[in-house]
Each structure stands twice: as structure tokens, then as C-alpha cells.
Amino acid sequence: MTxxxxxxxxxxxxxxxxxxxxxxGVILVALMVLSVYVAKAAAARQSSDIADMERQIASNGExxxxxxxxxxxxxQPARLEALSREAGLGPVDVHRQATEQGLPLIAPExxxxxxxxxxxxxxxxxxxxxxxxxxxxxxxxxx
Length: 143
Prior knowledge:
Blueprint: H1 5-12, E1 14-15, E2 18-19, H2 20-74, H3 77-86, H4 103-106, H5 127-133
Antiparallel strand pairs: 1-2
């Protein structure tokens, strides 16, 4: 088999005594080494991030355990009973319990004036109407 003349000329072409194919090969090898280095650095960075997240998870797990123990300590019935005695609280006397029919008698009376929650109107109110609606107070004599 004979190799076409164009292919032979490309493989035989030299730049300062080095064949062009060898120069391309060295450049490709350098690019592969650089890409492996970049990939390895990225993997190391991700590994570091994963280790940081695992440490945070372990720390949060420890905090959850400590908070659960604190909740268990605070919810102990004996502790709550002692706190209620110190505050003067106790069980409701049987004679003070209300029946269903007695609830209206002990219900608080409703406020006679309703509370207005609506926002005020957006436009300015006429000045003449406001002055007419407000009664004039007697002027005090300054001495």
C-alpha cells in the first residue's frame, strides 16, 4: 500500500528540525495532563465540601440530642408541679367548676363599641365637614 503524497508530506513536515506531528502530540499530552490536574483539583474541592457538610450534620445531630434532653428535663412532671406550687397555682376546686348552663353568667361582657379595622379613605377629607363635625370647646382664659 502506498500512502498518498499529501499524508506523507504532513508527517514529514518539520519545524526547526522537529516534525509537526510530534509538536501536535506534545501539545495534546500537555492538554491531557492539565485537564487531569483540573479534574483532580475539583474532586478534592468537592471532597472537602462533603467533609464540611458531614461535620455540620454531626454537629446538628449533637445539638438535636442536647435539645431533646433539655426538653425532657423541662417537661418532668415533678418540676412542673414544683413550679406551679411556687406560682400559687393548684388544681381547680370541684365547687368552682362551672356547668354548661352557668357559662353565660361568667362570660365576659362584650365591648360596647366595635373596633374598626378598615383603613382610612385614601383621599383627603374636606376641611369644612371636619370643622362642622367637631364641637367647639370653650376657650380658656389665660391669665
